[in-house]
């Protein structure tokens, strides 16, 4: 038997052409690159979690429906009773489920550019066509271009993050509603940063049968647990449930997330501290020469410099890791993105950046 020993003969060409999602090493660094919440949980809650972990039935498979966790989420997030909930191993997995479910031949997944890179990558994984409609130069939604693209491509699914990543801004709700009304397919509003924005499309779910809402606990302090959720009508979620692998949310994640959700005041207080620091950082960045900063409703800030790669590298050498977006999209030329950290981390980042800007052109 002649074996096909070469990956190029077995693996799909669009996958061969992809680069794996790169996560840079961050050991020992001030880590401001991934929108993580920088705060630990209070000691009392840590102790409660330790107790739960000690006796967790890890010899058993988890509850495949995670019924208790869903009940906690419904209460904590004020999810309407009329809506169904689907849980994912992070919301990344939910994006993948939706794309797999909608991937008929030639089906289109549409988003904006720049957007969360996983929308494009997962469209490719699932063998969907990806269409990215550029934002305007001020990074707002180009509603005319969106409506034109919807008419032309008839997308099965539209993903829009609200607030958007990597730009940090909220799109206008009116524009989102126009898109939801105009599109023949479903619209997933990705509210990964809702804790820092204060607004939500949750109250629009009843009104629009093609609207789905995605949330995650990752940016609110539980990135390591991997828990995302999709909220919407069961006529959609029942179909996605068929593709969900039965034990995608583990015993530990279910137990710990429930424990933390019994103390939502802790997460809310941490989000408030992050928002205060965001205001402070926005002001300090705005006061710097050779730098332009964009407004943010998220826990990160996008800003533009004259030489992003050099500044990114210099910060890195000095032990501060942020995200370099130069080259990701023309609208992001010379752009950097920093996550709001603790006051100490932010102060160190701002002081170091200030020094670098003074010394370089
Ligand atoms: C971080 C992020 C996610 C992914 O969250 P996980 O739940 O950790 O998978 C989804 N959407 C956007 C816009 C994000 O920025």
Automatic annotation (TrEMBL):
<dbReference type="InterPro" id="IPR015424">
    <property type="entry name" value="PyrdxlP-dep_Trfase"/>
</dbReference>
<dbReference type="GO" id="GO:0030170">
    <property type="term" value="F:pyridoxal phosphate binding"/>
</dbReference>
<keyword id="KW-0368">Histidine biosynthesis</keyword>
<dbReference type="InterPro" id="IPR015421">
    <property type="entry name" value="PyrdxlP-dep_Trfase_major"/>
</dbReference>
<dbReference type="InterPro" id="IPR004839">
    <property type="entry name" value="Aminotransferase_I/II_large"/>
</dbReference>
<protein>
    <recommendedName>
        <fullName>Histidinol-phosphate aminotransferase</fullName>
        <ecNumber>2.6.1.9</ecNumber>
    </recommendedName>
</protein>
<keyword id="KW-0028">Amino-acid biosynthesis</keyword>
<feature type="domain" description="Aminotransferase class I/classII large">
    <location>
        <begin position="28"/>
        <end position="351"/>
    </location>
</feature>
<comment type="pathway">
    <text>Amino-acid biosynthesis; L-histidine biosynthesis; L-histidine from 5-phospho-alpha-D-ribose 1-diphosphate: step 7/9.</text>
</comment>
<dbReference type="Pfam" id="PF00155">
    <property type="entry name" value="Aminotran_1_2"/>
</dbReference>
<dbReference type="GO" id="GO:0000105">
    <property type="term" value="P:L-histidine biosynthetic process"/>
</dbReference>
<dbReference type="InterPro" id="IPR015422">
    <property type="entry name" value="PyrdxlP-dep_Trfase_small"/>
</dbReference>
<keyword id="KW-0663">Pyridoxal phosphate</keyword>
<keyword id="KW-0032">Aminotransferase</keyword>
<comment type="subunit">
    <text>Homodimer.</text>
</comment>
<keyword id="KW-0808">Transferase</keyword>
<dbReference type="GO" id="GO:0004400">
    <property type="term" value="F:histidinol-phosphate transaminase activity"/>
</dbReference>
<dbReference type="InterPro" id="IPR005861">
    <property type="entry name" value="HisP_aminotrans"/>
</dbReference>
<feature type="modified residue" description="N6-(pyridoxal phosphate)lysine">
    <location>
        <position position="219"/>
    </location>
</feature>
<comment type="similarity">
    <text>Belongs to the class-II pyridoxal-phosphate-dependent aminotransferase family. Histidinol-phosphate aminotransferase subfamily.</text>
</comment>
